[in-house]
Amino acid sequence: MTRSSEIRPDLDEGIDRKVLAQLRSRFLALSQGRLLRANEGLSTRQQSVLALLPLFFHVNHPLLPGYVSGSTPAGVSHYEPDGQALAEAQRLTRSFSYKPRRGNAPQPIHGIFLMGSLGTLAQTDQSDMDVWICHDPYLSAEDVQELRKKCQALESWAASMGAEAHFFLVDPQRFVAGERDAQLSGEDCGTTQHFLLLDEFYRTAIWLAGRTPMWWLVPVYEETRYAEYTHTLLSKRFIRADEVLDLGNMSLIPPGEFIGAGLWQLFKGIESPYKSVLKLLLTEVYASEHPEVQCLSMRFKQAVFTCQADLDELDPYVMVYRRIEEYLLARGEPERLELVRRSLYLKVNKKLTGAARHRTTGWQRALLERLVSEWKWDERQLALLDSRSQWKVRQVASERRAVVGELNLSYRFLIQFARAHKAGTSINKRDLSVLGRRLYAAFERKAGKVEFLNPGIAPDLAEDTLTLAQLPNKREPGKYQWCLYNGNLSAYELETFAPIKRCRELLELLTWCHRNTVIDTSTHLALHPGISDLTEFELFNLQGALQQTIALPLGVVEEDVLLSPSVPREILLLVNVGVDPLRHHKDLNILMTTERTDSLSYAGVRENLVLTFDQITLNSWNEVLVNRFDGPYALLDCLTELLNGLEATATKPVIRVRSFCHNRAPAIAQRVEELIGTAQLLLARRLNHRYLIQVEQRYHVLEMMPGHISHVALEHLPALYAYLGEELSTYSPIHLDPQALDDSDLSLLIPYGHPECVQVFYRINEPHADLYVLDEHNSLWHQRVDYHDEPSLLVPLRRFFQSLMYRRVALLPLDNPPGSMSLETLYYRITPDGSGRARRVEHRPPPTVLIDNSFFDVQAIIEEASPGQVSVTLYCDGMEFSELEYGDQLFSVVARRILEQRREAQRYRCYITDLDLSGILGDTHGQTILFLRYKAQLEDSLNAAMDQM
């Protein structure tokens, strides 16, 4: 077209009504051209739907689809059905007869427009119809509700005709004011994208019936004074008000709209990146020009005004592409431009190679061929894109890098734009934060996380045949790795092929395959287990366990969830993967029969059958994590990490424990399940629990302090006694695993622990006796002493406790309630006597302390002499003996004094009956275990000195 065809209506020079009519005709002709293109891609029944829609909103007839009631608003401005529409209506309902509406009848439907990809380069058989129904702003709420019901009924009717239709009611006045239903946006990020939605409407909408947009008649150069210009048109009667509808103009676009649009497209791009890349880049183009944005709708209008209305060049998708192409070429970013081109080609989905090229050439194919020719793509590149439905891991992994790179680049652009233009409202900041976490969860690599390979790049990554093999790791001598290969390979062929994927551990590889659907139910998997004990039976069950725990496809994570730290949602614990815990018995041809079936202490040799753990976690952000535990502390390391994860969340995950190893798999899984169940119950009580577990001859304690769980490993029984005898700041109950310490007195007395109580246990095993004390904080004191009789064993201990309680009470302020510091002391006897297995604990009354001269007191005072050094003063029958006077001979002198005072010639043990530690403790009263420890040390020194005499 020549420049002489340009229309420039000018207010100052006068506006010709014919010129305005000519402008309207140009827009309508363009719209009609698009409608014809849309119908080319529709079936006969779908064409019928499109042709009948204006009639159904014009006539409210009970025989026609969409009828709701006699009061439903009907009547489309300036519409009269043509012969085609009436013929289609009579084919549906033969008894229908159209009667023209009276001239003064209301026409509350002002305009009907078709949105979406119909009539564009990207139209496909699956394209839906998005229809805007612009209605009279003064309709009552009841009338609008009637219209909404009619729209819903018409959607159902369209579906029965094979067409997917969506209707959106638009009140022009509310729309101009920025008020509209969120559903109008279809899939936008709420209601904040007013101008970008309007831009899309003006450049893509196909007019079906009713009034035409006022915006069509306003030249681009008059856009800044749109209100004045349109007022003049109406007030001077250049146009009639009932001929146009006004949805507003493309004035300054607020920067927040670019952020909202980018956020939403990035959100959609995580699952379907090719569909979002074009809109993401267009948003970036607009935002980069802010505030002088050259909207595509303005270019579209300018082309119509200058009579350059080429249907191909004004195709909505071609316009978007051209705009992005200008931008990226100017920036010198050819890689991003190539991704945009691939995205457009795949969006159009018209194959230009293979059998498809011999089909009848339609306008879409011709236009796409012209674009591809401009891009200078060769047959190889086209064939690769046309085979997208067959893309597998290698091609998808390569494409993923470009796609994820673009999404991350767009996210960083949005953040910088928000900062630069101070467009970060509280809503935008929240949305940006949520989106950042979505991108992180979907694409960020981190240790243990299974990479999500296919964010909508290819439809299916499943392979028909794969080979799974364990092979030596050449880079780490002595180490092995698991490799996955295409096809069914023999052991000799493995060296000559490159694996699709390699991992150190089997479950990491299997979980990767499952998360990315590389293996499905039809995949044949050949196995070369290497040095592992993996069997096909176990492999099959491992895959089943993964499918149960990580059910695909994963749902969309809600925003509220992303605003909180991720927490475990599903946990799968797999025990002894590829490991036979009794393999050495099989190698030695040993058949084991035993009554000791505990998986942590199996048979007479107390063998641990719980050797390795693979933990697969699906968290609240849909991240899949794999962690492996092996080595001597695998069980406790796994429990510690698992419980710390549970401690951090109020919502407890589903935990499954499975084992499919060759020997005792069900018993092993059940044993681990019991341990986890018990630990969870203890954790819920939040009482500083200590969970004592025995594995072989070792002892392990899970310390469950609120907010933190730790693991203490104790190599033997003496180490356990030492641990149990440590001072504690508060009462800490001990939960004993039922299978632990089954041959020790501790198994009977540990469950008796109780706060604010001192409990004495004794067991006679002549010529010795074992004394145990559980104090008020549940610390354990143990001492083996010579046994004479029960009074001589227990009375000195009771006298000691009486003295201790007396001192504590004496130090209390006068206003303390009586008994506030007194601790009840209970006595128990462990039976039977002797060194056999303890069976019972019997409560005994406290020993009677007689007031006579057969016993005399041995008191001790310990105080700090210098930093790190203490001095001891002993009082024997009232006489003082101090280290200041006797030095290292103190205990010998006191021992001699005691022997001199005794009436019997028989030697028996000497006991401390009173101990003062105020010189060390200061104002604190000290835990009973501390007094018992000093008492035992002093008694050992005295009795050792006595034995030398």
TrEMBL record:
Q: Which GO terms describe its molecular function?
A: adenylate cyclase activity
Ordered alphabetically, the record's keywords are: Lyase
Q: What is its EC number?
A: 4.6.1.1
InterPro entries, from UniProt? Adenylate_cyclase_1, Adenylate_cyclase_1_N
What's the domain of life for this entry? Bacteria
Which residues belong to any copy of the Adenylate cyclase class-I N-terminal domain?
A: 20-216
User: What is the designated name of this protein?
Assistant: Class I adenylate cyclase
**Organism from which the protein derives:** Pseudomonas lutea
Upper taxonomic lineage: Bacteria, Pseudomonadati, Pseudomonadota, Gammaproteobacteria, Pseudomonadales
